[in-house]
Amino acid sequence: MPRKNIVFMVVLISLTSVLQSHASQRCRIDSYSIYQMMLKGHTFKTFKAQAGSLDCRHACLADIRCQSYNVVMFENLCELNNRSKEARPEDFIKSENRYHFGKVSERVPLASIPELPGYSCKEIKASEQEQAVSGNYWLDPIRSGNSILAYCDMETEIADYCVKHQCAEHAMCVNGDMKYTCAYIDECTEGSHSCHNDASCKNTAGSYVCTCNSGYLGDGFNCIPEECQNYKSLTTKTRNTKYFATSKEDLLCDNKLGPGWFRFQGAAGKVMPTKCISWKSCGTLRPGWLNGGHPRMEDGKVSRKVNFRSIDNCAFKTTTIQVRNCGSFFVYYLHNAPSGGCQRYCGTD
Ligand SMILES: *[C@@H]1O[C@H](CO)[C@@H](O)[C@H](O)[C@H]1NC(C)=O
User: Fold this and answer.
1) What does the pLDDT look like over 294-303, one tens digit per residue?
2) Which atom of ligand 1 is nearest to the CA of 116?
3) What distance in Å separates the CA atoms of residue 337 and residue 253, rounded to the nearest whole number?
4) Does domain 31-103 have CATH number 3.90.1300.10?
5) Mean pLDDT of all residues in the chain?
6) pLDDT class for 9, splitting at 50, 70, 90?
7) Where in the sequence is the signal peptide annotated (predicted)?
């Protein structure tokens, strides 16, 4: 055997025993090293180590953010990285004077803690490979320094930022590429409000306000026409079409009535008659009846003619009034009966 080979064997044997003893001390592999390579652009901490020490390794193990590190040979500089070469293969490059070390044991999975947010689901998937499962992760896509919890679908690599949003109660969380936004719903224009038809709707932050239109009373969800609530009642039995005056002196005329909204109630009847009625009925000479019938509720406030009959003419005199259907009853806007002679508005059951 040539001399040169013997020297080489000795060196090889002694080197092997050193490595073996080193390995048994550690019990497990907590890192691997790659010569003349580095991960560029992910260093969050750089410091000088003591020559020949394990300072870089200890510092990486002690920092939860550390995913890998570079060692600059001869200068003894440690560069702690918050990404692994798996997460950022494009940044794993040649470097003549460096070693690259990957952290294996005790490496915290990327984006599993707020201190170590990922930039995207894709990056987490690259970093954790087979171990990457769909679930909640800490992300900071806009690199703001604030981590937000998001759900990563590892199939589609799409993040749902609305899993833990802080939008107001009435707002809607809308997912974006890098964050969520809160959409305030305009219930008024969207039509999801429950304001009454006769109310106006006003949008507010997170809600809306209903106000009854002028001429209506209520809380905005229920509005009733003012005249359905504020009216005077006509109740005397002499106003009923069944009543006939006993003498000429007893005849009554609507010469001082209203103007105002009236409702027929009690002995006077419920509504105005809608057909020509008997002459001299309802305690007057020329009784008045409603021409054109009663409106429906949805017709609102309508104009109608009231005809006052004479002995031989069902419409001897005429005036215009207003009528509204209040649901269970009617109201009439009445004023003095036409002048000349004796006329009166009548009620019927
Ligand atoms: C990760 O390292 C980069 C620099 O390489 C730094 O800008 C970033 O803030 C670090 N992220 C965290 C969460 O420390």
Assistant:
1) 999 999 999 9
2) 13
3) 8
4) no
5) 89
6) very low
7) 1-23
Q: Are 269 and 241 in contact (CB under 8 A)?
A: yes
Nearest CA to ligand 1 atom 5: 42
User: Any residues with CB less than 8 A from the CB of 33 and at least 6 apart, and which?
Assistant: 99, 100, 101, 102
Please say whether the beta carbons of 321 and 232 come within 8 A. no
Residue that has been written with the tokens 């802080």 in this structure: 166
Q: In what order do the strands lie in the sheet with 148-153?
A: 135-139, 148-153, 158-160
41: CA distance to ligand 1 center in Å? Answer: 9
What's the rounded mean pLDDT across residues 257-262?
A: 94
In terms of phi and psi (left: phi > 0; alpha: psi -120 to 50; beta: otherwise), the region of 246 is alpha
- pTM for the whole thing? 0.56
Helix, strand, coil tally for the chain in percent (to 5): 20, 35, 45
Pocket probe mutation, ligand 1, options 82, 113, 143, 146, max atoms within 8 Å of Cβ:
82
Nearest CA-CA partner of 281 in 257, 314, 233: 314
Q: Please state the domain extents for the chain.
A: 31-103, 121-183, 199-225, 232-345
Q: For residue 141, is the peptide bond before it cis, meaning its omega torsion is within 30 degrees of 0?
A: no
For ligand 1, the distance from its centroid to the CA atom of residue 136, given in whole angstroms, is 21
Give the closest residue (by CA) to ligand 1 atom 6.
44
Cα 125 to ligand 1 centroid, rounded to whole Å: 19
- CA–centroid distance, 117 to ligand 1, in Å, is 9
- Which of 124, 117, 77, 84 lies closest to 99, judged by CA? 77
